[in-house]
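In response to the reviewer comment on reproducibility (Comment 2.3), we provide here a single inverse folding case reported in full, input and output, so that an independent group could reproduce the run without further information from us. The structure tokens appear first.
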């Protein structure tokens, strides 16, 4: 069998069709290579038993313990039998129970003093934790029959694999034993100089040691090596993407010293922050080169990213080019259009009476525009009359033609598929420069993986005049008077001439919409309580604690004109309280809004709460964010809300968010929940390895872009970049 095919062999041919079917369906493992890269989750030590004292309820667990006692009880007038076994590990005890015909074998096997591995789902009976009918595997002696497959865990360390109820850890271990000889044929992706320079063991040895370690040092050596594989191969994929970009032609865009940008800067009523000036220089340096800029601009909520992006757009218009800003929602596109035209004043009135000498036209393009306005906008873009266009995915449609597209600004990148970003970039005569913005702070290591094809700029300084935001958790179930006080605070703010947002998880009329039955979350099922809804909450507030105030609603299913009208009324102060869904999460800028009440706050993610909170405190008056929850004080959800309330540092919160979620597939479009391509590496803990791997990968690709001298690395890349991921990187 050749080197590649040994690891590509289907599992069903090696370990049998029945086990292979379960592995494919429940663990996503199809080939010998897949199984070799299904690493143990942890290791049980023969001399140091796993703690039974912290077993999670309702989870499938594998434990190593010793039988303390076993007894058979009769019930049903003597016709039924139940075997109760108590196991211990020194930290606590756990009861196992077997019924009926399943009693005989365990009664014979599980004698007091016997040590074994047990696997099953933790349940509660008579207020005690138990495993009902657990699978088990005896651990014999100190090495007797060590060579036999049934006793392969008789060594010092017992691998515990990520398992399922259908396939216990030790059955996976036996399958690994079958395929482990193939590990010797694994092709090593690391260049020898890198491997030797960092003292890393060869890949076949790493696979052997991760699955069958003799000592903890074996595990550590294997982990180090396998982490490097994942980090390096991924960074090579991204480095090749960056290298390819540097080979593309682009028009260098250098602003005129007496042009539109200079005129705009002269009319600014404030000075740019040091951070804004520094990031602007990085962007202008990129724009001046003859290959496309690919830059990620991330910054705290309210750090002035839109100002930086607008100055970049004006610089491109100065050169005769056009700039397009892509926003994820119509509300946000309209908001950006309003704020950009306000900031530019007469400079945005190109071709109109009263337009300034260096002015241009700023047009809005969304799917819901009237036919006449849409025709005019398309004409202005095609002729070059409009230097700046702000729009939704409507910008991507085939009908939209640009005179000379020089810069694409994508706001809130995580809301767009890569195909959408790519389609807009394809509208330039040459590849346009690209600036991606996000107000969701991203830990440095995630930026180097998820956005590894982009250079990164960070705005972490708030503009002068931004006010602090106080955040508090309002425990509505424990202390209902706290919620009453929250509504009093809203009334007080309105009495002082300010406005408020109230955010709810859902709209409220889903059940009345044909074909739109609402899917209940696990929280709903557990509490038998649907999430609070905009329509119901708005009605309740207007008739109750906020009676007499002007309350309006805003949600994603309203007609676009209605949404815009509601936002305009709120922006000019005609509305006191806006009850909305997360449609107001990003970009909405009403400086007079000072208080935000988030209902069922535990149903939102950490980053989302931080985004929402950023909608207040945008003017000179201090902001207040109240996180309302009915979750009990001891719950993880309350701890998460407490963390959000305790800091305004978005980067700190983004680390917390990442620690709480699965990292997802860093190359795929899903942000979480997918099977991750990172099995050993964690982007939070392995920052140093990722940073070093990026440097090494950049150097390797610069020296040999086609990787002609590194066939093992090419093979690993092919395995990483299946068709879907390859497209993802090509379209980056």
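Designed residues, in position order:
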């Amino acid at each position: 069998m050749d080197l590649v095919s040994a690891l590509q062999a289907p599992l069903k041919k090696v370990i049998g069709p029945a086990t292979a079917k379960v592995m494919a369906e429940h663990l996503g493992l199809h080939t010998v290579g897949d199984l070799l890269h299904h690493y143990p989750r942890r290791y049980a030590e023969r001399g140091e038993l796993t703690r039974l004292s912290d077993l999670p309820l309702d989870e499938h667990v594998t434990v190593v313990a010793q039988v303390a006692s076993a007894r058979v009880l009769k019930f049903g007038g003597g016709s039924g039998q139940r075997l109760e076994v108590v196991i211990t590990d020194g930290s606590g005890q756990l009861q196992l129970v077997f019924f009926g015909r399943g009693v005989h074998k365990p009664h014979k096997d599980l004698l007091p003093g016997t040590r074994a591995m047990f696997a099953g789902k933790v349940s509660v009976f008579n207020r005690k934790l138990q495993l009902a009918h657990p699978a088990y595997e005896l651990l014999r002696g100190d090495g007797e029959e060590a060579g036999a497959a049934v006793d392969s865990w008789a060594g010092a360390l017992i691998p515990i694999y990520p398992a399922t109820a259908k396939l216990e850890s030790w059955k996976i271990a036996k399958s690994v034993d079958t395929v482990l000889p193939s590990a010797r044929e694994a092709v090593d992706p690391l260049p020898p100089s890198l491997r030797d320079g960092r003292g890393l063991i060869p890949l076949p040895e790493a696979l052997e040691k991760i699955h069958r370690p003799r000592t903890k040092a074996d595990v550590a050596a294997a982990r180090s090596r396998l982490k490097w594989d994942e980090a390096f191969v991924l960074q090579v994929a991204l480095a090749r993407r960056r290298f390819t970009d540097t080979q593309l032609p682009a028009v260098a865009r250098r602003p005129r010293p007496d042009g539109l940008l200079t005129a705009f800067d002269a009319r600014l009523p404030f000075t740019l922050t040091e951070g804004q000036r520094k990031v602007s220089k990085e962007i202008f340096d990129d724009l001046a080169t003859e290959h496309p800029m690919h830059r990620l601009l991330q910054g705290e909520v309210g750090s002035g990213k839109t100002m930086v992006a607008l100055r970049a757009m004006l610089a491109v218009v100065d050169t005769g080019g056009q700039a397009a800003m892509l926003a994820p929602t119509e509300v946000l596109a309209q908001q950006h259009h309003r704020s950009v035209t306000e900031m530019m004043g007469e400079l945005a009135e190109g071709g109109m009476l009263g337009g300034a000498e260096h002015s241009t036209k700023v047009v809005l393009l969304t799917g819901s525009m009237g036919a006449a306005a849409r025709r005019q906008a398309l004409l202005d873009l095609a002729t070059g009359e409009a230097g700046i266009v702000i729009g939704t995915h409507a910008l991507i449609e085939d009908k939209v033609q640009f005179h000379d597209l020089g810069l694409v600004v994508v706001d809130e990148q995580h809301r767009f598929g890569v195909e959408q970003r790519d389609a807009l970039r394809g509208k330039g005569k040459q590849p346009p420069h690209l600036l991606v913005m996000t107000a969701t702070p991203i830990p440095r290591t995630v930026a180097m993986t998820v956005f590894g094809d982009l250079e990164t700029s960070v705005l972490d300084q708030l503009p002068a005049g931004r006010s602090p935001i106080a955040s508090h958790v309002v425990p509505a179930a424990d202390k209902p008077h706290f919620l009453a006080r929250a509504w009093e605070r809203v009334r007080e703010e309105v009495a002082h001439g300010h406005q408020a947002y109230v955010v709810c998880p859902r709209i409220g009329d889903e059940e009345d919409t044909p074909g739109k039955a609402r899917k209940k979350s696990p929280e709903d099922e557990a509490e038998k309580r649907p999430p609070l809804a905009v329509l119901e909450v708005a009605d309740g507030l207007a008739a109750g604690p906020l009676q007499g105030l002007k309350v309006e609603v805003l949600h994603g299913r309203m007609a676009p004109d209605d949404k815009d009208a509601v936002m305009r009324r709120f922006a000019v102060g005609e509305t006191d309280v806006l009850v909305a869904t997360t449609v107001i999460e990003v970009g909405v800028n009403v400086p007079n809004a000072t208080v935000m009440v988030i209902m069922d706050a535990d149903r939102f993610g950490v980053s989302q709460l931080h985004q929402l909170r950023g909608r207040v405190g945008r003017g000179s008056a201090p902001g207040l964010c109240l996180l309302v929850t009915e979750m009990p004080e001891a719950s993880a959800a309350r701890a998460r809300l407490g963390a959000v309330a305790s800091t305004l540092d978005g980067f700190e919160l983004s680390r917390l968010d990442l620690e709480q979620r699965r990292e997802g597939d860093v190359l795929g479009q899903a942000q979480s929940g997918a099977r991750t391509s990172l099995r050993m590496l964690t982007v939070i803990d392995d920052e140093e390895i990722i940073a070093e791997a990026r440097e090494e990968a950049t150097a390797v690709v610069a020296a040999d872009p086609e990787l002609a001298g590194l066939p093992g690395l090419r093979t690993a890349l092919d395995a990483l970049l299946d068709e879907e991921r390859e497209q993802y990187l090509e379209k980056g």
